[in-house]
Amino acid sequence: MIAFVVALPLLLATVLVIFYFERKMASFMQDRLGPTHVGIWGTLQPVADLLKLLQKEDIVPLQADKALFKMAPYIIFLSVLASFAFVPLAMSYPAAYSASAIFFILGILALDVVGILLAGWSSNSKYALIGAMRTAAQVISYEVPIGLCVLVAVMWHGSLNLDHIANAQSMYASLPNYLFGIKGLQINDYGGILNWNILQAPFFIPLFIIYFIAALADCNRAPFDIPEAESELVGGFHTEYSGFRFAVFFLSEYCKMLLFSILAVFLFFGGYHSPAVNIGSIKLCQYTTGVAGTASGYAWGVFWIFSKSFFIMLLQVWVRWTFPRVRIDQLMSLSWKYLTPICFVLMIVCALWKIWLIS
Question: Helices 243-268 and 295-320 meet at what angle, rounded to 10?
Fold first, then answer.
């Protein structure tokens, strides 16, 4: 319950901020102005859009399965929101401690496809149904490389606990950290960015790229927004939704983006630890991470998690307005012919590298 009370306001605030920056980045890349009228530089435009959606009429199609139609958006949102209960926001954050946090996050998050299928089928619309079936195929295809990417990080650290994985990428690691996985380049005492997984072994760089691509597809983000393709399916599985229920779909998509970004931060970028490096007697890393279990520790943890996650979300926005939408056959080929086999190879490389380091 504490995790929900803390996470929900942060979620809503982050979604409003990233929504504003997405529109500004899109307008910049397309040589437009973007939001300008509501608030200074249009900063209150997301709030105005939310208020507008709340005032819209809630329309339920006459031939729809009304109970399932109304239930579907909330199933999706609750599956995403429940996953945040297992995300530790700082060191020694008791509300989210779980020895199998990654397992629970991926397991609960997989339920959102049930809500999407219900939304498409219950709408009694061919466009919504096609979009829902595309989503099922897409999510199943891209959860495989995501799971394998996570598995490689779990193998490297020997834990499903996000706290353990985050702390293993810091100066507090129980085992030695080596820069680029080379014996003799031990970097525990320096802390900061040098201890992050992305620099601990060379295979983590392609692994993050695969994870990033697969997360885009799992979130139905362009160029993988096949289920929603406006030019083909009007809007996909949420074609028949209006008002607040449409807003719930919209909110769920951005919350899922944030969740995958936070998971990437824990798996590759040091979790809630500072990127600052200790230099001799200047302990920048300790100062900018705070003391575990204290107010400063919690504040720094939340700051670094959301700062890193926000940067990854901006990359997702950048990709959206850079690449054209792929065809559905290209989408499936990318997952099954390229990303998944590469993940298996990286998993073998990780196992051999880990054996070499501890031998």
Answer: 110
Query: In whole angstroms, what separates CA 229 from the centre of its chain?
Result: 21
Closest CA to 267 of 108, 358, 148, 179: 148
Contact 285, 277 (CB under 8 A): yes
Residues whose CB is less than 8 angstroms from the CB of residue 302 and which lie 6 or more positions away in sequence, other chains included: 10, 89, 90, 272
Q: Is the pTM here over 0.90, yes or no? A: yes
CB atoms inside a 10 Å sphere around CB 348: 12
Q: What is the mean pLDDT of residues 288-309?
A: 85
Distance in angstroms (rounded) separating the CA atoms of residues 105 and 254? 16
Three-class HEC string of the chain: CHHHHHHHHHHHHHHHHHHHHHHHHHHHHCCCCCCCCCCHHHCCHHHHHHHHHHHCCCCCCCCCCHHHHHHHHHHHHHHHHHHHHHCCCCCCCHHHCCCCHHHHHHHHHCCHHHHHHHHHHHCCCHHHHHHHHHHHHHHHHHHHHHHHHHHHHHHHHCCCCHHHHHHCCCCCCCCCCEHHHCCCCECHHHCHHHHCHHHHCCCHHHHHHHHHHHHHHHCCCCCCCCCCCHHHHCCHHHCCCCHHHHHHHHHHHHHHHHHHHHHHHHHHCCCCCCCCCCECCECHHHHCCCCCCCHHHHHHHHHHHHHHHHHHHHHHHHHHCCCCCCCHHHHHHHHHHHHHHHHHHHHHHHHHHHHHHHC
Phi, psi of 186 (to 5 degrees): -80, 135
How far, in whole angstroms, is CA 209 from its chain's centroid? Answer: 13
Confidence of residue 5 (pLDDT cuts 50, 70, 90): low
Burial class (CB in 10 A: 0-12, 13-18, 19+), 133: middle
Identity at 201, one-letter amino acid code: A
Residue 95 pLDDT exceeds 90: no
**Residue 154, φ and ψ in degrees, nearest 5:** -65, -40
Average pLDDT over residues 45-69: 87
Neighbours of 238 (CB within 10 A): 26
Longest Cα–Cα distance of the chain, Å, equals 71
